[in-house]
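Hi everyone,

Forwarding the result from last night's run.
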Amino acid sequence: MAAEHVARSAPDGYTLFVAQFASHAANKWLYDKLSYDPIKDFTAVGMMAETPFFLLVSSQSNIQSVQDLVNLGKQKPGGLSFGSSAIGSPIHIAGELLRMQSNTKAVHVPYKGAGPAATDLVGGNLDFMFDATAMSLVKAGKLRALAVADSERWHGQPTVPSMAEQGFPNFRVKGFFTLVAPAGTPEAILERLNAIMVEYARRPDVQAKMTGMQVSALPLSRQQTDAYLLKESTRWEQVVKTSGAKAE
C-alpha cells in the first residue's frame, strides 16, 4: 500500500503522498488492523483540493427532490439501492449518511469504479448515488442532480441546491486531496513546499481550471491542513462504525 510505503520512508522531503478520504478519513475505521496511522505517521505539506459530491438519480425517474427520494425509500419494499466506486469511498459513506439521517432503508452496491455505478443508475438499476465525476451525465440529460452534499451550494454548479436547503442541515461530505510527508520531515522543507502550494492555489487561473475539473482549490497552511485531516478522521468514525461497513 502506497500510504504505508510513504509512512515508512525517510523523512527527507523526497517521498510524499497524496492523502484522500479513504486513506486518511475512512480506512482507520474500516480495517480491523491498519498498517499505518493516518495522523501519527504523517505530517501535512498542504491542501491540494476539495471535491464536491452531488446526489444523483436517473432523469427517467419521478424523483425531483431529496424528500421524494426519502419517501420512495419508505414505500419501496426492501428500501433503496445506491452504488459507489468502492467500499469506504466517500460516495459510499455519503450514501450511508443519507440512510442514517433520513431513517430510510438503503442497500449499498459497491462497484469497481464510479463509472459502472453511474451507468447502472442511468439504466434504472440503482435508485441513487453520490458522485462528482458523473456531472457530465447530468449535462447530457441522463441523470438529475438533486443536491450537493454540503450546507451551501457549490460555486461550480450554483443551480444545484444544497442538502441543507432540502432539510438536512448537518449533511456534509467532501472528497479531498492533501499532500503529506512522513512524520519527522524537517519544518524548513515542509514550509517551502507549502508556500509553493499556497501560491498556486491562490492564482485565479488555477482556481478557474480546478473548478472546471469539479474541484475547489484551498490555499491552507500546514497547520490548517493538519487540523483538517484530524477533523475528517474523527468525524467519520461514528458514521463508518454505525454503518457496519468493513473493508474486504
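The beta strands are 17-19, 42-52, 54-58, 80-84, 106-110, 128-131, 143-148, 174-182, 216-217.

Cheers,
N.
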